[in-house]
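Reminder to self: tokens first, then the designed residues, so the page reads top to bottom the way the pipeline ran.
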């Protein structure tokens, strides 16, 4: 059996479905990426063309979710862009007026490394009943991994030594070569599937929202819609972090004050 080739017409259909479901533009440069990531599904079902797989995706919701999972980029690691976590630890938390709980939303949390990084810091600085972190992602596979909190041992190197000592448990037996996040953080955390283009109105209000390495996948119109939707859940005076490699140019950011590169505060 020769390796199937993704034809232009098939790719355009995948582009349309992916945009409808996730709001993400797969530009033409992504064609080879789509072909390679979906190839395993063709082999799994013994399909000879991507058209056969498209037919399955269009009638089977579970397979559509699997397609989205496979096409969603999930590169992440602990304490990514350390400046953000230093700001959280040294400037934000010591001066922020916490009324009940300091609530963080890790939007597009992937496998949870960002959420657990913040959790380790908050747990060292605040009482247990004073903080909470919610992580969401459209990818159901990564949400399951985030809930488990089990990672390759090589990832532990990005975690500061004093936090590594307190919150990372070395794997043994079948988990040799991995480490587990200490369960003491779990009662203050929750991971859920969520689409940034369809945020429930009762999702709640947050003091800090991470939306990093996400906006780069959207066109300007969708970026505006995503940012507007996320801002509805940021408290006045709350903080909004994007990635150092992103910006809010070309969209309306009324009501947001730029504090530092990639760090904003909601006025009010």
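Designed residues (268 positions):
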């Amino acid at each position: 059996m020769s390796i199937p080739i993704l034809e232009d017409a098939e790719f355009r259909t995948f582009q349309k479905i992916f945009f409808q479901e996730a709001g993400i533009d797969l530009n033409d440069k992504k064609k080879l990426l789509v072909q390679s990531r979906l190839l395993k599904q063709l082999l799994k079902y013994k399909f000879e063309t991507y058209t056969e797989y498209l037919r399955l995706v269009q009638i089977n919701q579970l397979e559509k979710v699997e397609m989205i999972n496979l096409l969603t980029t999930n590169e992440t690691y602990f304490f990514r862009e350390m400046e953000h976590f230093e700001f959280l630890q040294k400037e934000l938390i010591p001066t922020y007026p916490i009324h009940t709980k300091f609530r963080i939303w890790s939007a597009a949390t992937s496998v949870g490394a960002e959420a657990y990084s913040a959790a380790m810091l908050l747990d060292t600085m605040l009482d247990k009943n004073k903080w909470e972190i919610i992580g969401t992602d459209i990818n159901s596979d990564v949400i399951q991994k985030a809930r488990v909190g089990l990672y390759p041992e090589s990832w532990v190197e990005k975690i500061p030594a004093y936090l590594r000592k307190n919150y990372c448990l070395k794997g043994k037996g079948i988990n040799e070569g991995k480490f587990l996040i200490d369960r003491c953080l779990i009662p203050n955390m929750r991971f859920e599937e969520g689409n940034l283009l369809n945020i429930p109105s009762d999702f709640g209000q947050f003091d800090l929202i991470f939306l990093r390495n996400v906006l780069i996948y959207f066109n300007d119109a969708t970026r505006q819609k995503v940012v507007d939707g996320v801002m509805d859940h940021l408290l006045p005076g709350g903080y909004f972090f994007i990635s150092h490699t992103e910006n809010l140019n070309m969209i309306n950011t009324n009501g947001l004050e730029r504090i530092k590169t990639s760090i904003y505060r909601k006025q009010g």
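The chain has two domains: 8-71, 82-266.
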